[in-house]
Amino acid sequence: MAASPAAQRVFLALWPDDPTRATLARLGQELDGPGRPVPRDHLHLTLAFAGTIPVGQADCLAGRITELACAPIDLTLDHLGHFTGPRITWAGPAEPPAALANLAEQAHALCNDCGIDLGPPRPFRPHVSLRRHAAPPDTERIEPPLRWQADTIALIESGKDGHPGPYRILART
């Protein structure tokens, strides 16, 4: 019997429904240029990245995730962007709704309540990663824009004991 991990790599995210996930996956596959599409079951919009934390802190997040439950957020993913360091092409809202920023703040507060140090505050840039090892996209507009009624928040495990691994939903709203 394998020993339980001492630490888990986790994050809180908006988790797309199946139709939205299919559209995002298709968009990632249709982008021109180098890179590889993010796997369909990895598509999400990160609210708070906790990183590698002790299992007990992940259990705290899982036990309290319902505190983040909220009315569905109407997202319009109409913008393509690119992070140059990790070479990631992403989709996001050109004008993020205030409700999304508020939800991210609540996710960060929940992490703090569970004893998780997220480090210094960073600007929130809501996005869904579409391609890795990618070049900047030819256009910044998504036509037609993708509408997403975001209503599921998930705690995702993306590795154990400091090693990346498959995604696994630990809890959801």
TrEMBL record:
What is a single molecular function from GO for this protein? 2',3'-cyclic-nucleotide 3'-phosphodiesterase activity
What are the transmembrane regions? none
Q: Report if keyword Endoplasmic reticulum is assigned.
A: no
Per the record, what are the reactions this protein catalyses?
a 3'-end 2',3'-cyclophospho-ribonucleotide-RNA + H2O = a 3'-end 2'-phospho-ribonucleotide-RNA + H(+)
The family database entries (SUPFAM superfamilies) matched by this protein are listed as: LigT-like
Q: Which UniProt keywords apply?
A: Hydrolase, Ligase
The record's section on Gene3D superfamilies has: Cyclic phosphodiesterase
What InterPro entries does the record point to? Answer: Cyclic_Pdiesterase, RNA_CPDase
Short motif (HXTX 1): ranges: 44-47
Annotated active site residues, numbered on this chain, are H44, H127
- Which Pfam families did the record assign? 2_5_RNA_ligase2
Q: Might you give the EC number(s) for this enzyme?
A: 3.1.4.58
Q: Which family does it belong to?
A: Belongs to the 2H phosphoesterase superfamily. ThpR family.
Listed HAMAP family: RNA_CPDase (MF_01940)
Which NCBIfam families does this UniProt record tie to the protein?
Answer: 2_5_ligase (TIGR02258)
The entry's function note states:
Hydrolyzes RNA 2',3'-cyclic phosphodiester to an RNA 2'-phosphomonoester.
Per its record, how is this protein called by name? RNA 2',3'-cyclic phosphodiesterase
Species of provenance: Thioalkalivibrio versutus
